[in-house]
Amino acid sequence: MGLGDALNNLGNKAQQLKDEHGDQINEKIDNLQEQHSDKLGKHADKVNNAVDKGQEHLK
Question: Ranges of Basic and acidic residues compositional bias (predicted)?
């Protein structure tokens, strides 16, 4: 097994985990944003927007 095979297997495993748990992860992230965004002060919108963009990869 070469490096390419190992990386392909890792990518497949990541996709499988995303498919199985992506909704749960998104829900937890949304809850954390609601609970803690006030602690980010003037940066809350920028951080929340960045997090939301990252969450698009879990859908």
Answer: 29-46
Q: 33, 51 in Cβ contact below 8 A?
A: yes
Whether 48 and 37 have beta carbons less than 8 Å apart is answered as: yes
pLDDT digits (tens, 9 = 90+) for 3-13: 888 888 998 99
Question: Which amino acid, 32?
Answer: L
Burial of 22 (0-12, 13-18, 19+ CB in 10 A): middle
Q: Cα separations (Å) of 58 from 6, 20, 25, 44?
A: 22, 10, 8, 21
The one-letter amino acid code at 59 reads K
Mean pLDDT across 18-35: 91
